[in-house]
Amino acid sequence: MHALHVGHGVEAARVTLAVAACALLSVTPASAQRGEPAAPRFDVVSIREIPAPDDPRRITCGLPGIMPSGNRIRIPLTQLCGLIRTAYDVGEFQIAGIPEGTGIGATNFFTVEALIENATAPPGIEDIRARLRTLLSERFQLRVRRAPVDMPVYALVTDGGPKAKSCADPKSGTGYVTGRIASCTPLLPMARFTQFLSRETGRMVLDKTGVEPFPFELLWTPDTAPPLPEAPPGLFTAIREQLGLRLEAQRAPVDSIIVEHAERPSPN
Question: Most buried one in 102, 199, 245, 246, CB count within 10 A?
Answer without folding.
Answer: 245
